Amino acid sequence: MYISNIFEKVGNTPIVSISMEDNCHITLYAKLEAYNPTGSVKDRAAHYILKKLKQSKTINSDTTIIESTSGNFGVALSAYCKYHELKFIAVVDPNITLMNENLIRSSGAEIIKVTQPDKYGGYLLTRIEKINELKKDIENSYWVNQYENPLNAAAYYHTLAREICYQVDEIEYIFMGVSSGGTITGVSQKIKENYPNAKVIAVDVEGSVIFNNPPKKRFIPGIGSSMVPKILSAASIDEVVMVDEVETIDACYELLEKHSIFSGGSSGSVLAGIKKYFSQKELYQPVNVVAIFPDRGERYYDTIYNETWCKNIREKLEKERKQIVTP
User: Fold this and answer.
1) Beta bridge partners of 88
2) Residue 40 DSSP class
3) Among the residues of 107-228, which ranges form H helices?
């Protein structure tokens, strides 16, 4: 059957096996969400949420869609809003990559960029303040609110998680990065229904406050948060592993050089989390591990795949460590 538009071709992304040289007992299955129409896992939520909102008549052709985004969700929403002939305003911050900003603009969306850091040194809370202002000023507007909207989790429950359950015969561990919280909430619910003994491992980055760790400035968009997303209250998470942004960078290069997977920062964080988690465990028999790799590397040319940028991040983190160690 032919699909009339590329934006109806969401999901059914490939899953590939990756060898883990430092642990032969791990069979790692990577779900490659870069193969969605606009290049990330966020296509699923954009497609699902807008479709449900239109079906329920919560929005109409005159509604302005508003969302806070660090990049991928903005890219997806801008494309799907254009497809549905809806106006879209993306509220972003200086950490957005140039490519993501250009992709959002290319779909005709309006971009509003906040520049004032919030109390945690990030910009999320400032973006939400701006959205609340926009909601008051724009009469027929709808804030998607990926941090609380149950439709966000439902999108991943009904699509991504269902696919994984069909594609992998037995799931013992599943690793996911956490940011707005919708993906891990929806996926964890479905995985636990099908594999009650599977362990859901959340991967977060240093500087994120999601799991009550101390806040600090973060440089890689797409993972971590300056607040605890309310949607996470419905997630089923067994353990959390924290990685730093140098580990993220190194894992991205490992995926590219050893496995020919050109991935984004959150994918690198997930691989780094897997390596760290199992380095602290003794495995005596094979285990099946699933990893969700949310996006692709092209959007990180000016950050992770920029030698000068990486050098600066390494120096900043090393300086921070020395300050912590020095009495």
Assistant:
1) 65
2) B
3) 124-137, 150-158, 160-167, 182-194
Domain boundaries, the chain: 6-37+156-314, 42-143
pTM, whole model, 2 decimals?
A: 0.94
- Percent of the chain past pLDDT 90, that is, above it, reads 80
Q: What is the DSSP string of 119-135?
A: TTSSSHHHHHHHHHHHH
Closest to 26 (Cα-Cα) out of 285, 319, 228: 285
Residues of the chain with pLDDT under 50: 1
CATH: 3.40.50.1100, 3.40.1190.10, 3.30.450.20, 3.40.50.2000. Which one for 6-37+156-314? 3.40.50.1100
Residues in the chain: 327
Question: CATH number of 42-143: 3.40.190.10, 3.40.50.1100, 3.20.20.150, 1.10.600.10?
Answer: 3.40.50.1100
Triad 268, 274, 279: Cα angle to 5°: 130
Interval 139-183: pLDDT, tens: 999 999 999 999 999 999 999 999 999 999 999 999 999 999 999
- On the question of a common fold for 6-37+156-314 and 42-143, the answer reads yes
Can you list the positions of beta strands (E) in the chain?
A: 15-19, 26-32, 64-68, 87-92, 110-113, 141-143, 173-177, 199-205, 239-243, 287-293
Backbone angles phi, psi at 292, to 5 degrees: -100, 120
Closest by Cα among 50, 66, 53, 229 to 133: 66
Q: What residue type is 285 in one-letter code?
A: Q
Q: What value does the CA radius of gyration of the chain take, rounded to a whole number of Å?
A: 19
